Amino acid sequence: MSDRTRIERDQRTYRNSRPSMLGRGIERLTNPFAKAIASVVPDWLMERVVRGIDSAASAPELTRFDHDTGDIAACKQAAKKVEARAKAINGASGVAAGFGGALTAGADIPTTIAVAVRTIRDTGRAYGFAGVGTAEQLFRMQILELSALNDPDQRQRAIAGIEAAIGPDGELVEADPDRHGALVDQAVERVSRAIAFASFRKRAGMVMPVVGSAVGGIVNASFQGDVAAAARFAFQERRLRGID
Fold first, then answer.
1. Cα separation of 225 and 91, whole Å?
2. Stronger pLDDT, 157 or 174, i.e. the higher one
3. Which residue of 70, 89, 105, 233 is most buried, as measured by CB atoms within 10 A?
4. Tell me: the pLDDT tens digits for 51-71?
5. For residue 128, what pLDDT is reported?
């Protein structure tokens, strides 16, 4: 089986996949406590964090690359290293945050989103995409939103939106400059809502000090895995179209 065939199989698998089992399990277990986290992190803070998406994207790389970006199999291996690094970093911050219960659990959300944005950016670079420009900014937001969605229908719509944003040669379809501001506002609102909903429900088990540290590490690592998988799908789709 060729590398391209394997990647195309990966793409089909992701399109048909459900949210991660761990994510669904954590959500069922912690849903009764979700309001405890929601009361700590207000909506305006979530929106401010998401609006700072490019600040996180300009931070130093989590992983250094030395592979040939023309080799799609090597790109995938590099992207897997990005995922592993992000899980380690954010898992450790989740363990630390869990010791303090609800207050520190909420405070860890901005850190988690910052790591997620860098994971998306570095995954793009692993596939040879620099991630510069307004279209790239919106594309990162689409990926971040997809990673936080658990509803199957919403996931399918988000996947379709990502694929529609990619041109025939792997380039991004530029938005109308006159509508760019409105599109950014819409993206920020959607991403904030999706991230807030997912974070509040999955992190609610962290409200119990000390015990919550284990939940914090698991939840953060699981979320970064979801982010990395969404990012690989999006950038692999661009790379596949670019080599047709």
1. 11
2. 157
3. 105
4. 666 566 666 777 788 899 889
5. 92
* Ramachandran bin of 86, using left for φ above 0, alpha for ψ from -120 to 50, beta for the remaining angles: alpha
Task: For the beta carbon of residue 68, count every other beta carbon within 10 angstroms.
Answer: 12
Q: Which residue has the tokens 């959500």?
A: 27
Instruction: Write down the mean pLDDT value for the chain.
Output: 75
One DSSP character per residue, the chain reads: --HHHHHHHHHHHHHTPPSPHHHHHHHHHHGGGHHHHHTTS-HHHHHHHHHTHHHHHTSPPSS---S-TT-HHHHHHHHHHHHHHHHHHHHHHHHHHHTTTHHHHHHHHHHHHHHHHHHHHHHHHHTT----SHHHHHHHHHHHHHHH---HHHHHHHHHHHHHTB-TTSPBPPPPGGGHHHHHHHHHHHHHHHHHHHHHHHHGGGGSTTHHHHHHHHHHHHHHHHHHHHHHHHHHHHHHHHT-
Is the pLDDT reported for residue 212 higher than 50? no
pTM, to two decimals: 0.78
Give me the phi and psi of 172, to 5 degrees please.
-90, 145
